[in-house]
């Protein structure tokens, strides 16, 4: 049976190199309960049995590459014996069985030998030249785990929260679990979860003393209590200091804690939900940190994007079980758990302590190890993207892109069935399914949630507002951040671009893998037309999905944490997590009070920056439910020059307006008029053929009528090369900030008549140009040629990241890497 292994917690200690004695070679069959528990208990198999002698190479202590070969050999022998056993039941000729089994072993051995000598050497030493220093992940507590190890990394581990660490430990944990579970991954496998592992919550909860001093300088005469109370915050004091003392809604979402309830939490207040209160920024950080620490539910599952196959052929969906971490303690970032993982990694790779610490851990090598293990494992649940409607709740599964290896992106045809939506029919079908299906089926769970929500709407004539932003006192910046993950509004423009860069790339990959029909929309589409990139002043990004795809997202992926392990992203791989959050009111396609026009969001959990998701649907009575006379968007769908032509209509002559109404009704009757909940309208014919292109370096579909759509939305934008504080430089093919390059415009912002493009010498501009010039050049060629039906875009044609993230600026600075060296790492 599995034994419970209590972790040591005896303070600082020097971890010795694990013993190399051979454990018993016999393998228990009960490895399936290997899980992570949070009361500082790591549930594994018996520790001596956890490291099998098949994973230790004693003949050559320096031959790390042999470790992977030995894993293949064991997998080979395991499958050989398993196949032999199964065949012997069916075939009565043992000699034939033995010969076939031997031939199979030889064939697989040759295949694995070739593979291991060409692509499976995952050791750090051999791959060292292909990595940059930034690939090495910061391991927390190195100074405590290895006090005698003298390196700058022991200091870095104290000061830097590397968001890649938990994604790396998750890879390591899954690989160990599968190997020591006889190469099986169960459909019922699940893990515990802690937001502390994935988000730097402590930094949000740190008290801002400078703000307190500033506040006291203005309020010292009004405040007569002990100043120490201002640091030991309860709800009343929080509201007083951060400007929301008169807001009733704030007090309804704040609860005072007693001393016993505080645990490892520094304050006396607890946040239970969103508030409409305008809160000063230091308070908003505390508000978000408190909710994440004490109240935020875990995601329902983790989608490990592109974790399988050489070119991201598949992803792994891991179910999350909230009951495995009811105390909300750290799991992966627990010091003793980290120590055990390091011990296991050193034993598995036959590396000593100094070798391991010097080489560290990299996402790429850990991803490849798990991919190789999955390739030769018995995965109980496999879903192909063509079968994603068969996903069931509470199951872990391997999701494969396609039965064919990367067929490439070509023209895509979208049809009426992708948009058609009947709310009543949908709710009736869902209710009917709930009567006949198991209560844990996705559809029955959805029915329970939506039935309660629909009853609320019947009683109140509106849906409760779902999404909330980090509303800030006296400023508007907070509207661009989800309140739960808010980490500060002062984000430099270059950093914001890097966040949106990663966010959009992950969204497009996720949608492509799961057959979600989407395109980049509105201002973001305008950015694509210009140079294939987002507009540099955009605070978020807008995407559109079909109604059928939105329903699929709500059914299969709501409350999913997406981790992008794509190898193309290099050391930026798995840089953060993205929470997919679907508005439960998505099933209703009418605007209502306007508080739920956003159907979903993909949220960067490190910053709160989000991607807005809205769906387009055809509904039978749309024109009857809106005020057509005041809706300019509808009229511009018929006449893109409506705002000008309306003034030329003869007064008292209704022919022009009657013609508009006739054409609108005809579009509706012909099942061409589709709309979002904010009454943005399109014709299905504009989206019936979607063209293949790239956005932020990743493959994406766009409407073939993109110019017509943009002209309707932004009539002058395609011909304008100046925007507030920006000029579009045709030479660099970039929007240039005029503060970086003042030579383009005069003091009032007008473009100089003799402004020379490509003459800006700003270092940041030149860096971005060098990073993007090949990509933007290709994009402009595609836009000019418009030979969309001739393109087949493959995964290997996508670009590496070309935005320098703020985390790596800090990381490189701590390691004393110059800005020029950092730039070179991005261009390698």
Automatic annotation (TrEMBL):
One of its GO terms (biological process) is glycoprotein metabolic process. This is LicD/FKTN/FKRP nucleotidyltransferase domain-containing protein. It is a single-pass membrane protein. Residues 1-15 have a biased composition (Basic and acidic residues). Residues 17-34 have a biased composition (Low complexity). Residues 1-35 are annotated as: Disordered. Coiled coil: none annotated. Keywords: Membrane, Transmembrane, Transmembrane helix. It is found in: Membrane. The chain crosses the membrane at residues 87-114. It comes from the Eukaryota. One of its GO terms (cellular component) is membrane. Residues 511-714 form the LicD/FKTN/FKRP nucleotidyltransferase domain. It holds the Pfam family LicD.
